[in-house]
Specification:
Length: 136
Amino acid sequence: MTTIQDVREALATAVGAIDGWRADAYVGEQINPPQIKVSMPAFDPRLVFGQSRVTYTFRCFAYYTRAAGDAGERELDALAAMTGAGSFIEAVQESDNWTATVNYAVVTNVGEVSVTQFGTDSAEYFVRPFDVEVCW
């Protein structure tokens, strides 16, 4: 049976295949942009099961160094494109990219670009969140 760990790793593999990006299945301790980190936000366990399937939402954060200026924001905008080689959406929704058995994966939200720090790192990063619903 497919597990949360399987899905996190498969999601990281799918989006890590986007040219120029690397991805981790877990948030971890450090960041090396351009990088996508997979997390699992809070959820209501009463709403996870539907018939014999489970559905979870995963949140992916795409980080780019702020020192890159406009070029970094352009890279994050390219991820938000609906299609194309640099599209996060296309990478997630293309079933051939998945290494775990899932019924479907769909991007349900593309967030805005903001500025953040990661952990105790004093460097600032551009970040854009993506919510991905996965059913298996």
